[in-house]
Amino acid sequence: MRARAWVRRLVRFVVSLAVLVVASFAMIHLIPGDPVRASLGPAAPIELVQARTAALGLDRPLPEQLVTYVTHVLSGDFGTSFLTGEPVGEVILTRLPNTLTLALLATAAALLVAVPLGMWAAVRTENGRRRGTELAFSATTGTAVAVPEFLYAIALVAAFAIGLGWFPPAGRAGPITYVLPVAALAAGPAAMIARISRVETLRELGKDYVRLARAKRLPGARLHLRHVLPNTLTATLTVGGLLLTSLIAGGVLVEYVFAWPGLGMKIVESITQKDYPVAQGVILVYGAIVLVVNLAVDLVLGALDPTSEIRERT
Amino acid sequence: MTQSGRPGPRVKSVRWSAPAVAGAVIVGLMAVLAVVGPMVWGAAADRIDAAAILQGASSEHPLGTDNLGRDLLARVLVAGRYSLLLALAATLIGAFAGVVLGTLPSVLPARGARLVTGTVNALVAFPGLLLAMFTAVVAGLGARGAVLGIGAAIAPGFARLTQTLAATVAGSDYVAAARMLGVPRRRILTRHVLPNIAEPLILNLAQSLGGALLGLAGMSFLGLGVQPPDFDWGRLLFDGFPRIYVTPEVALGPAAAIALAGIGFNLLGDALARAAARTPAVRRPPAAPPGEAAGEPDAGAVLEVEDLTVTFPGGATPVRGLSLSVAPGEIVGLVGESGSGKSLTAAAIGGLVPYPGTVGYARLRLAGQDVATMTGKELGTALAMVFQDPLAALNPALKVGGQLAEVAVVHEGTGRAEARRRAVARLGQVHLPDPEARSRQHPHELSGGMRQRAVIAMGLMGTPRLIVADEPTTALDVTVQRQILRLLREVVDGSGAAGLFISHDIAVVGELCDRVVVMYAGRVVEELPADRLAEGAAHPYTRALIASLPDLDTDRSRPLAGIPGVQPAPAQVGPGCAFAPRCALASERCSAERPELVAHGPAQRVACWEVS
After folding, report:
1. Is cis: bond before A306, omega within 30 of 0?
2. pLDDT tens for each residue of A61-72
3. Are residues B453 and B339 in the same domain?
4. Which whole number is the average pLDDT over A43-59?
5. Which residues, listed in sequence order, are joined to residue B195 by a DSSP beta bridge?
């Protein structure tokens, strides 16, 4: 039963990936008018446009183009940049690690701060105790959630890079340059996870197994960390996983603020400059990352939560 | 626990809590700004001043000027309308597309429906900004591409919501009833389905608006959204950002505006969602009665309770003046309807009364020791508790064996291997088949009866002096109930512990227990040996409980005998006997004066004016 659920999930992943590839292929063809003309500008000679069109294979029949595109993508060939002539695959390979490190560090930072914070708030405010703490917690996190990451980024740059001069305002060179981008990226998700962690913890604290554990007179640390925490993690990690994908998107804005040499910076440049092969390749990679992350979240949850087997069935 | 609910006058106070008010005020101000902003500051925002190009803050221009010398404060105030309108447009586009997508599956043939559902599910997990970038490539840079993109990003959420809502409503009883009555399909849709899904959809609309505003601001900030000469807050930030090294204040205006709008919409959306999610609370008033019961604790008793009172703020007193004692090897049954205070009594004995309840007593001793002076280790090993639902009482994330073993590990410092061995032995002791293998399984892999055995085994890990079982068989099959009752008896006999068995079912109590204590509205009304239940019960309430039991002789074609009326809420108990309003024997004295618990034959005590 379990094996079948996993196979189903994998099939869904492969289908989504196929749809994504077709969508990224279709992107160039959905652009009204001639994308090559649009990118080269109205002043470009017609011969150049025709030569570029032929080089890109855009003059071939659509089905043939699709087949070529898919075989190329599968072999790691994402085409070449209109502007620089660089292979898009290479651009992605050099920039992807910078983007992923940022996203993973931010996720880790958010979880490490938020889960304990949420649990602490839940234990402090259980059964309507300490209404003041509860109000302060929900007001603070509610506000923090609502501020978009690029404003955090700008505020951090203004305060800590320009104002205090503690950190470099932009670029990537050494561990210290990671601090501000990671903080900017993690702040919103951390507030969100803290809220969820608190609600989940409160829910668990009300359950019978906690009453029984209390009747067993387990010490607080053991009760909260060993009994309650694992049961809150499923929901917290689900949301954490979903946030990871939004964090990848938010990374685009943060990279832009910090001139971070990642994929996000590249996609903004390529769209502004109408460098369609680059935009196409980078969007495809972003989409694939999202799909992989979602798959990973599901698989991790399946392994973590022993009852998910039941849930699949019913 | 039947009445752990706090007596709450706090339901209403949340509705307009400070954050909700703040959100409403901010959103209101934004709306006003959108209307009047361009009228008041429109001219100032467009006034080009070649003498004041790229200035920082000054008294004339509090937020500085842009590259044409235009006043930035005025431009921020004017940009509100455009920013909000674009967000509104994106939200409406997304909502419309989403509702259409969401209703498609109910119209299309099965295969098409699955395709749409699959697509929606795949898109929901997709970050909006990526979708927006996709449309920005296709539709070209500018407000149109960004609005379409953000709209496209909002649509899947609406589609999923519409789909689930419509499915829920379509499967509900009232729609089924309407169908049976022959109401035409279209009328079902307009009269039943749409009105019931409209509210959550509108709520989602309000919440999406804030998200759309931030998304559009982000796109404009990247230079992918609004293009000059138009400007929204994101575009102003795009222009101001490169200048923050020299004059940070020029980025302040648009940044503050975006942040404020985001916060306002989020706070308001939260408050709206919370208000909508609040189903009418089923308020279960804790029962509470007056008086203190008699009963001197026996000398050799394991559990001695005297004058136990549980109070909640607001004066609700679900247990008052309760006295009780249980001897070693004896099982005492505590019977009563829900709300009689029996479960809270058990919680008070275990020290588990939930905040904000408070417990008071003249004497509460376990094995001769005041419970308040006992350490966690002593209580944790001397007291075993068994709850109603064994699945809920076991931690779903931990293996059964580990949950048993930890009692020994934590309280006795036993090594892991030794503790595990003991856990397996205890599981065997409660007749769990193949205890070795079962101990390595998670609770959900066990049957209901096995789980309850595991919980009982957990109580045996220490050296239990008292086993408190709170409705331990209510959630189980009838055949399993019997086995568990037998096991409880066996465990009490074997360990010499005292048993306190709490149940609403007087038949089960009569079968298992040595002595029965009947509670009504928080106090003991009768106490008698279990074997005298059938013949010797004196209190009208006890007799009514027994009379309400169906047995083999009961004529099943006739309605079961019940007790007319309901148990009074704590505040409604008058000075007299709490049962008087429902009692056939009640006299004037009963409602005026409360009867004490007095001896009534050997080993029996009754609190009733009419029978004692």
Report:
1. no
2. 888 888 888 888
3. yes
4. 81
5. none
- Judge: B355–A272 Cβ closer than 8 Å, yes or no: no
Among B10, B27, B114, B133, most A C-beta atoms within 10 A, so best to mutate, is B133
Q: Within a 10 A sphere around the Cβ of B586, how many other Cβ atoms? A: 18
For range A277-302, the mean pLDDT: 85
Helices (H), B47-172: 72-107, 110-124, 128-139, 143-170
> Which domain does B184 fall in, by range?
12-278
**CATH code at B250?**
1.10.3720.10
All residues at 6 or more sequence positions from B314 whose CB lies less than 8 Å from its CB, including other chains: B7, B9
Asked if B350 lies within 8 A of A215 by C-beta distance, the reply is yes
Pairing of strands B598-599, B523-529: unpaired
* Mutation target vs B (from A27, A180, A216; most B CBs, 10 A cutoff): A216
Domain assignment present for B195: yes
- Does B248 share its domain with B324? no
Question: Measuring CA to CA, how many Å separate B139 from each of A30, A32, A33, A60, A304?
Answer: 8, 7, 11, 23, 43
Q: Residue A102, exposed/middle/buried by CB under 10 A (0-12, 13-18, 19+)?
A: buried
pLDDT band at B89 (very low <50, low <70, confident <90, very high): very high
pLDDT band at A185 (very low <50, low <70, confident <90, very high): very high
The predicted pLDDT at position B8 comes to 36
pLDDT band at B90 (very low <50, low <70, confident <90, very high): very high
Please report, for the domain that includes residue B381, its CATH number: 3.40.50.300
Q: Any residues with CB less than 8 A from the CB of B13 and at least 6 apart, and which?
A: none
Residue B580: inside a domain: no
Q: What burial class does residue A227 get, using C-beta atoms within 10 Å of its C-beta: 0-12 exposed, 13-18 middle, 19+ buried?
A: buried
Same domain, B274 and B325: no
**Token digits of residue A102:** 């940022």
User: pLDDT > 90: what percent of chain A?
Assistant: 9
CATH superfamily, domain A97-274, is: MetI-like (1.10.3720.10)
Identity of the residue in B125, B214, B258 whose CB atom sits nearest the CB atom of A290? B125
Inter-chain touch B380–A216, beta carbons under 8 Å: yes
Of A8-17, A300-309, B154-163, B360-369, the least confident: A300-309
**pLDDT at site B85:** 93
Domain count, chain B: 2
Residue B258 shares a structural domain with residue B344:
no
Of A207, A227, A249, nearest to B130 by CB-CB distance is A249
Give A279's contacts (C-beta < 8 A, 6+ positions apart).
A27, A267, A270, A271, B133, B137
Band (pLDDT 50/70/90 cuts) for residue B462 is: confident
Q: Are residues B226 and B342 in the same domain?
A: no
Task: Kindly state the tokens that stand for B173.
Answer: 């009883």
pLDDT at position B284: 34
Question: What is the predicted pLDDT for the residue at B557?
Answer: 60
CB contacts < 8 Å between A and B, how many?
194
Give the Cα-Cα-Cα angle A40, A43, A44 (nearest 5 degrees). 50
Instruction: Name which of A209, A214, A286 is nearest B395 (Cβ-Cβ).
Output: A209
Read off φ and ψ for residue B105, nearest 5 degrees: -55, -30
B264 and B375 both lie in a single domain: no
Domain chopping of chain A, boundaries: 97-274
B565, part of any domain: no
Q: Does residue B88 register a pLDDT over 90?
A: yes
Query: Each residue of A141-180: pLDDT tens digit?
Result: 888 888 888 999 999 988 888 888 888 887 788 888 888 9
Structure tokens that stand for B68 in this block = 């044409």
B538 pLDDT more than 90 = no
Nearest CB partner across the interface for B134, out of A163, A250, A283? A283
DSSP E strands: which ranges in B219-318?
303-311
Inter-chain contact B379–A217, Cβ cutoff 8 Å? Answer: yes
What's the pTM value of the predicted model, to 2 decimals? 0.72
Between B501 and B321, residue with greater pLDDT: B501
Q: What are phi and psi of B307, to 5 degrees?
A: 55, 50
